[in-house]
Design brief:
With about 260 residues, this protein is an all-alpha fold. It has a single domain, classed as MetI-like fold (Orthogonal Bundle). Helix 4 packs across helix 6. The radius of gyration is 22 Å and the shape is globular.
């Protein structure tokens, strides 16, 4: 069993370790180790195209996480409060279907809307809308799981004491589900910043994000600069995962 477990973890994480190690390789080729250097990181931070793409990715990820957290929280609360079978279907379908199908359907929708109304031309805004569409479901799942562990009698007691529905939500429900909301927001940010498939379909000409820029670079060759930007993106993702686990280590459990 130990051999099987170690082999599985090596298969999962050894390629990531190799990417990080070779980002410090003093050679333009990744065929062999030549020496240790930071020049690829220095070259990366002087690459205007890469910095622009990274700025676009951060801007879209922040906006998408905020919007999807707002709507996902409302969806999670609604799924818990109203036991309608159609609600889980509507909220969770975008995350259940393959990303390839989501990307194709979204680009067809945006093109049709642009042809009819003259708006929604493919670009950064359509990328943002696409990311919000598939991140809402992830936030809703976390919030709904958090609400399942909440004692509904607390809200009823607040209402009996004269609180309005909004006051009961703000003063009672919101503090209980806040860890789940934060965890969902961090998850949405992570999913948005490194998404490739849906972004590839909905970006259009001239709109570049970090995953798209990395893809354009590796079509030529996998250089240490690609390893460097991949390592930084990996580090950002790991930091967000650690923050999410610290903020709400049990937010995905329904027995809190």
């Amino acid at each position: 069993m130990w051999v099987s477990a170690i082999s599985t973890y090596l298969f999962l994480y050894l390629p990531l370790v190799i990417v990080v190690v070779f980002s410090f390789n003093d050679s333009k080729l990744n065929a062999e180790w030549v020496g240790f250097t930071f020049k690829w990181y220095d070259q990366l931070f002087h690459n205007d195209k890469m910095l622009t793409a990274a700025g676009h990715s951060l801007m879209i990820a922040v906006a998408a996480s905020l919007l999807s957290t707002f709507f996902g929280t409302l969806a999670g609360v609604a799924m818990h409060k109203y036991k309608l079978r159609i609600l889980p279907f509507l909220v969770l379908t975008p995350i259940a279907i393959p990303e390839l199908l989501t990307g194709v359907s979204l680009v067809i929708f945006f093109v049709m809307v642009n042809q009819v109304l003259g708006i929604l031309e493919l670009g950064l805004f359509t990328i943002l809308l696409s990311h919000v569409a598939f991140c809402i479901g992830f936030v809703a799942i976390v919030v709904k799981a958090r609400m399942q562990g909440m004692d509904d009698s607390l809200v009823e007691a607040a209402r009996d004491l004269g609180a309005t529905p909004f006051q009961a939500f703000r003063l009672v429900t919101l503090p209980v589900i806040r860890p789940g909301i934060i965890a969902g927001a961090l998850m949405a940010f992570t999913l948005s910043i490194d998404d490739f498939v849906i972004t590839f379909f909905t970006a259009g000409a001239g709109a570049s994000t970090l995953p798209l820029e990395i893809y354009s670079m590796i079509k030529i060759a996998v250089t240490p600069e690609v390893n460097a930007v991949s390592s930084l993106l990996m580090l950002l993702t790991l930091v967000l995962i650690v923050i999410a686990s610290r903020v709400s280590p049990n937010s995905l459990r329904a027995d809190n």
